[in-house]
Structure formats: C-alpha cells, structure tokens
TrEMBL record:
Keywords: Membrane, Transmembrane, Transmembrane helix
Transmembrane segments: 16-38, 140-162, 191-212, 328-349
Superkingdom of source: Bacteria
Residues spanning the signal sequence: none
InterPro entries on file: PepSY-ass_TM
Protein name: Membrane protein
Length: 355
C-alpha cells in the first residue's frame, strides 16, 4: 500500500513538473497548429488573384504540363522549383534562386503576382509550429517536447484521472459550471484532458514523425513482408522531356525540383488528389539524373507497408484523413494544451497557498 501511494505521488509530480515545463511548448505548438489547420481556406480567401482561378476543374492535366513546360523554358536556369496546382493553390508558382515566388495562370501562363504578406505569414506560422523559428536545433526541441507531452504529460494525466474516476466515469466527464472558480478550474482540467486524450495523442505521435521519421520507419519495417513488391509501372518515362509533357496514368504532377548544389537530381513529386480530400494519402516520388536515369522511385501502390503507413502521418496530423470533421477535431484539440497549461498552473498555485 505504501509503495502504491509513493508511486501515485511520483506520477503526480512528474505530471506537474513536466506540465509546467514542456506544457508551454506544447501550448505554442497546439495554438499555431490549430490556426494552420485552416490555412488553405484562409490563404485562398485572402489571395484570390494569386491562388484561385475560375473553372479549375476544366483545365486538363495536359494543359497544366504545357504551362509548366512553357514557364520552365522561359525562365531556364533561374528556377529551383515549379509548383503545379495543389491544395489551396489552383495556380502555378515558380520559386527562383533569389528567393522570389511568382504566380502564373495555369491555362494562359499569364503573370499574376508575387508572394503576399498573408502567404508569408502562414509560412512563418508553420516554421514556428515546427521549429519555434530556431535554426537547426528548433525542430528537435519541438519534437522532443512533443514526445514528452505524449509519453509523460498525457499518459500520467490519464492515469491520475482513471485512478480518481475509473469507477465513476460520469463524474470524470462532468463540469459543474456554477461551481466556485477553484472547482470549475479543476473540472475543466480533468474533463478536457480526458476528452481529448486520444486526438492529442494521435496529433503528438504523428507530429514527432516529421523530425524523427527515420526511427519511425525503422520501427514500421517490422510490418513489411519479406518479399518486397517491385515497381513495374510501364508508364514511367525516364526522359525529362516526356515527364513534363505526358501526364502520369495514376497521379497528378504537383511539383518539380531542379538540381542544386546539394542535390544533382531532378525531383518529380506526384499526388493522386490535387486538392484536399478525406482518406489515405497516395503519392509518388521520382528522381532522375541529368542524363535521364532513374535514381529513386517510390510509389504508394507498390511501396512497402512501412512507407505506406509513413505517408499517412501528414493527413492524420492535420485531421484531413477524416475530412472536415477531422480538421475540426484537430482545430479544437490544438487549443486544449494551452487550456490545460493555464488550469494546471492555477491548480498548482492554489495548492501552494494551502501549504
């Protein structure tokens, strides 16, 4: 009995001190992520001339490739990337070596403008979400705090909640709105923590993947079969001129990355659905050398189980895998850490006043 009491006290101390420290980072990550969930809609609404075109569904894949090919030839060696319509962007964007971004009409190739303040804002917001804006080590700080949030704060919190309300779940999910501030604060903390435990755990687990993806993939290789399926896609045309002219039979071309100092290959990125759709994320990555030799190829339909699973972390993290409902859940879940942080702090100070 004494050992159990000591264990429970230890769990509460871990929950308290990690909540006070890493909880702040989790709150920043949650708030920025919550706002970024609606980035596609907000960006489109704020930048209709740059990102939207009328009757986008009537523009064929052949036309999109012709536009990209024309723009590529026109700007020659000054490009580092061409983005075709994808997610909120219905236009074609060119990323230049000098850092500028130009937008062009997907059918006529006419110039539409450069990157706006609001587009830059969301790019900066994503950078804060992923790295706190700290170069090099920022992503490790955020990813590590996310793992601590998942394994320590959430798990110890649900353990404390279960010990108190495991025999009376109704009480564990009850908020007495007319109670005194102290009681209301406690009820908000316990109910929000328990109610959002699963979505927060999924968001935290999927979020850490983007920094520690190699470890995740190594673990998921246990699910791979001993015989790997070979890619026999006969539609692949390794010649650059063919790739920029002929649409893929399954996927839509979403971006072309041009050779750089660090990477001498052309990188073609494909996606099955150009715009946001619920369900699994299906994509293809193709790299070819300047002599038109395939150096790397991954395809969802012929890939290993581990890579197929890894491809779903982004739609899980954003909630897009479950459509609009999933995004709404992620949006509200992102606000929970800061609420838990504030209510937890208040509980801590109330306890200190008593002692």
């Amino acid at each position: 009995m004494n050992q159990l009491l000591h264990f429970n006290r230890t769990i509460k101390k871990i929950h308290l001190w990690l909540g006070i420290s890493c909880g702040l980072l989790a709150s920043i990550s949650g708030l920025t992520g919550s706002l970024y969930v609606w980035q596609p809609e907000l960006s489109s609404a704020l930048n209709p001339k740059l990102l939207t075109v009328s009757e986008i569904d009537t523009i064929s894949e052949e036309t999109l490739l012709q536009t990209a090919s024309y723009l590529m030839k026109r700007h020659k060696d000054s490009l580092i990337r061409i983005n075709l319509p994808y997610r909120e962007q219905q236009t074609v964007s060119l990323i230049f070596e000098n850092g500028e971004t130009h937008y062009h009409h997907p059918r006529t190739a006419s110039y539409l403008g450069t990157k706006s303040v609001s587009i830059q804002f969301f790019e900066d917001l994503l950078n804060i979400h992923r790295t706190l804006g700290i170069p090099k080590i920022g992503k490790y700080i955020m990813a590590s705090s996310t793992i601590i949030f998942l394994l320590s704060i959430l798990c110890t919190g649900i353990y404390i909640w279960w010990k108190a309300y495991g025999n009376n779940l109704k009480r564990g999910f009850t908020i007495k709105w007319k109670a005194k501030k102290k009681k209301l604060n406690y009820d908000l903390h316990k109910v929000l923590g328990a109610s959002f435990f699963i979505p927060l755990a999924l968001i935290a687990f999927s979020g850490a993947y983007f920094t520690y993806n190699s470890y995740y993939k190594a673990a998921f290789t246990l699910l791979d079969s001993s015989k790997r399926t070979q890619n026999n896609n006969s539609d692949i045309q390794p010649k650059f001129t063919e790739l920029i002219r002929k649409p893929d039979s399954i996927y839509a071309l979403r971006a072309i990355y041009f050779p750089s100092k660090n990477n001498k290959d052309f990188h073609f990125r494909y996606i099955q659905d150009r715009f946001i759709e619920p369900g699994f994320r299906r994509s293809k990555e193709l790299k070819i050398t300047e002599t038109d030799q395939i150096s790397a190829l991954t395809d969802y339909y012929t890939d290993t189980n581990s890579n197929k699973i890894a491809a779903q972390f982004y739609p899980i993290h954003t909630g897009e895998i479950a459509g609009l409902l999933g995004r709404i859940i992620v949006f509200f879940s992102g606000m929970v850490p800061i609420t838990l942080y504030i209510t937890g702090f208040r509980m801590y100070f109330i306890g200190r006043k008593k002692s």
